[in-house]
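Minutes, project check-in
Item: structure for the 145-residue chain
Input as provided by the requester:
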Amino acid sequence: MKSKLFFPLLLCLAILPLCSSSSGNTGAELTHLKSWQWELAKKKAGEQNRIIFVKGYADYCLPCKFMDENVFSDPEVINFFNANFVNMLVDVKTEEGKWFIEKYQLDLLPAMYFFSSDGKLLSAKNGSLDKTSLMKWAQMITTKN
């Protein structure tokens, strides 16, 4: 009986590291303005010669959580976004979020937008993206601008 349990237990222990959700995260995280601070984002972007990245989200949004856990937690994404963008979050349930929804016709979460430092919309995508798609889009934006 003990030998019948030993192999499955050994197999589970061998597979456990592969099932870990860490995906190589080094503890770094995407830095972003903690609340809607549009004028500050434009000022910082201008001073640092960067593009503004805005992510619209809601706490009930499962695709938003998926991207946070699997895309925005990836060290390559973190490093690229922190180096190239002034990152800002907008909670669509707040007054600022409602204004943002109306102004930019947000219809699906997560919603991601790139703006120039003077506030001009450069590009937008609504809906979940995988790491490869997000990085390709972000790199294209930095190359064009």
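Outcome recorded: Residues 5-26 have pLDDT under 50 and may be disordered.
No further action items on this chain.
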